[in-house]
Amino acid sequence: MHGFSADRHTPWKRIALIWLLFAVLVLLIDIRSVIEWRFPDPDDTLRLVQVRDLLAGQGWFDLHQYRINPTDSPVMHWSRIVDLPLAIVILALKPLFGQPLAEQIAVLAIPLLSLGVILALVGRLAFRLFDREIAGLACLACGLSPVLIWQVQPLRIDHHAWQIVTVLFAVSALMVRRPLLGGALAGLGMAIGLSISLEVLPIAAAIGAVLLLRWIRDPAQSQWLASYLASLAGFLVVLFGLTRGFADLTQYCDAISPAYLGLFLIVALGCSVIARKKKVPPGGVIVLLAGTGMVGLGFFLLSAPQCAAGPFGGLDPLVRDYWYVNVHEGRPFWQQPLAQLIPIVAQGFVALGAAVCIWLGSKDKMRSWWLDYTLLLGAALITGLLTWRSMGFVSALSAVPLGWLASRLLAAMRETGNPARKLAVGIALVLTLQPFLAVQVAQITLAHSRAQAAEDTGNRIKQSECDLSRNVPQLAALPRSTLFAPVDIGPSILYQTDHSVVATGHHRAEAAIHDVILAFTSAEDQAREIIGRHQAGYVVVCTDLIEPHNFETGNPDGLMAQLLAGDSPAWLRPVKIDAPEEFKVWKVVD
Question: For domain 469-588, is the CATH number 3.40.50.12610?
Fold first, then answer.
């Protein structure tokens, strides 16, 4: 490999067919969720609530959720960039089908659209680096990744899939032959990703480090980093103005705010000045850029000292213990279930090993390119191990080296005439593209003994009877009020009724989350004071979900323990609705 493919005929038809295959598969696999209209995650539910509010007339720059803790409504950290495609589809289809059906089409179509964009970027990248066969195999590796496909399943409308798109776009831009253009495009991609969420910050930093390495290898490549940082800072300012506006200049730690903008602008300006100095040796470049970075970081810490510990560093201890530590996607790899951990991490390291092999086997400019790519994949893998939700970036970046490895294994199968070796290579090929298969086989093998053990001990896991999609609408018959409920069911209440809730599982409402946890884990007198302070008219609990039992475990004498035992205090009067016994409602009375 001496350079990127000059063939401009990307196999779009092949990529489109693979997209169609996976689109049909994810619809069939999740057909029950679609029929029962169950969102994969509470964030997806609340995302649609935010889009509804926008379409109902809430201001573009107004990101308050007024039905969360109405006495002190939080400003959401979510970006309008993700709301926009949903809103466009709903607005376009509403005159034809009405809003309910337009919403349903949008939440099915947008995830599949993001899947199509991801496959297009991966396929184009693999084709330019290799050939049509590897482009197809790389797309298959994408579609067979459970971590990635989770983010593009029907009704999965939160921001993660679009972040994967921005990372792939930025990495693809690193193939552009002109440094100024390539750096600018990479900066644009990362600016969009950071404006959506700060989760891509480690990847944005890794791209900057790779471009610095290009500069050190060849001073003539200095414009890569200068262009990247200038584009990143400039587009962050533009996107901030377009999506947040300049009326609210509060220094938030969990989203792009003035302190972050100042940091990026200082670093970009300093890098631009340094890049103009033609005779600075590599060591001097590193020292000057480090100094610029320290100045930018100093500005950031002086402007927002509360952010020194990160977005969640100052989280209320009660909120951290009962809520944050139970958000497994935000936790490190050692706090994940082994059945998920092993195949995902193993595939990531296999892809990293394949990238190293490609790098070592490449020559000239392609050797430098594959070093850059391998470093980016390694950085993404470290990020994913520390924050599990970021493994989606690993799956996307792993697709190209896995496609190359799969092509090598296919070639080995064609060449060998030994049946045993052919079988071994075939198994290796399957596990390369779908490592979960080994876990599934093991689970099937152990299924009988596990079932027997569960039956013997009476520990069978029972699926919740509290079907939110079916039972929450029953609450609409109650007079409009603020409902005091565990945070996990809050988004469903907002989506399916006109009621308000005290809190949902979103950290900007930290004080309200604290109050919900404290009330349910306190004695009834303190709980009554907290519930009354929030002017809640009803208490709602799904008794067979995990969150209520966490509260019960936290204090066996608290309010939630009383409610689960069927011993509600006198100031809570049971309300009968057409719902299973597990879905309980009480009216707050004097």
Answer: yes
